């Protein structure tokens, strides 16, 4: 590294842990989701589809817990863990964005303005995925946190909920079941389209990191492993 650069601690252990759990969970969810969406093409049986959906939901719980953890940290954390340092809503953001466009060599301790916009987009889409996914899990394979509510709503015999299984019509009132399916349609639409948007944004995010690294030369990638950036002493934007 250049002698005019200094080692600056930016990303806490909590942020790095969230990031890599999120990467692994999303990759697994994408792979399983693609197989589920193309079940007929891959020749997946009904039992196989239930198994895939079960695994998808379990990974989804990890994804959701991790995301909720990150959102909580944004309220109670320190410095670059907080909302003000990660989203494009701080006072003077427009000026910050203009400065970013004009000064190509400027390095940033936290996210640069383009990075903040990307974080906003990714967090928004992941939140949609989380909420819609939990509702779908409850209406499809009757998993928590909403599964018990939906099984109660569609059961003929409320005292015999254990027999209600995915893709089975036993103990199910057809009218109530159809009402549940109608209720879940917008959640499926939101889940699928936010999934497609994530498929578009994730490569864009990776390209953005590569471009930012070439532009700032501050060890952005390694910083997400060890927490440290290497920043020029005279050209640091503390945003």
UniProtKB/TrEMBL annotation:
Residues 10-227 form the Cytochrome b561 bacterial/Ni-hydrogenase domain. Keywords: Cell membrane, Electron transport, Heme, Iron, Membrane, Metal-binding, Transmembrane, Transmembrane helix, Transport. One of its GO terms (biological process) is respiratory electron transport chain. InterPro entries: Cyt_b561_bac/Ni-Hgenase (IPR011577), Di-haem_cyt_TM (IPR016174), Hydrogenase_cytochrome (IPR051542), Ni-dep_Hydgase_cyt-B (IPR000516). GO terms for cellular component: plasma membrane. The chain crosses the membrane at residues 20-38, 58-77, 117-137, 193-212. It is found in: Cell membrane. GO terms for molecular function: electron transfer activity; heme binding; iron ion binding. It is a multi-pass membrane protein. It holds the Pfam family Ni_hydr_CYTB. Belongs to the HupC/HyaC/HydC family. This is Cytochrome b/b6 domain-containing protein. It comes from Colwellia demingiae.
């Amino acid at each position: 590294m250049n002698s005019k650069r200094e080692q600056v601690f930016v990303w806490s252990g909590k942020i790095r842990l969230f990031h890599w759990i999120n990467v692994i969970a999303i990759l697994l969810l994408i792979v399983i989701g693609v197989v589920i969406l193309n079940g007929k093409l891959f020749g997946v049986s009904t039992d196989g589809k239930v198994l895939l959906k079960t695994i998808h939901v379990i990974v989804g719980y990890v994804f959701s817990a991790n995301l909720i953890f990150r959102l909580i940290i944004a309220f109670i954390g320190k410095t670059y863990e907080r909302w003000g340092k990660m989203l494009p809503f701080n006072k003077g953001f427009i000026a910050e964005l203009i400065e970013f466009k004009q000064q190509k060599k400027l390095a940033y301790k936290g996210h640069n303005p383009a990075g903040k916009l990307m974080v906003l987009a990714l967090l928004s889409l992941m939140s949609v995925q989380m909420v819609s996914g939990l509702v779908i899990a409850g209406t499809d394979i009757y998993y928590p946190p909403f599964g018990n509510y939906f099984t109660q709503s569609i059961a003929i015999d409320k005292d015999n909920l254990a027999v209600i299984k995915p893709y089975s019509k036993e103990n199910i009132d057809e009218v109530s079941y159809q009402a549940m399916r109608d209720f879940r349609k917008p959640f499926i639409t939101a889940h699928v389209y936010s999934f497609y948007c994530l498929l578009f944004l994730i490569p864009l995010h990776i390209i953005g990191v590569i471009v930012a690294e070439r532009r700032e030369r501050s060890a952005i990638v390694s910083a997400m492993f060890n927490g440290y950036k290497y920043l020029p002493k005279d050209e640091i934007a503390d945003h």
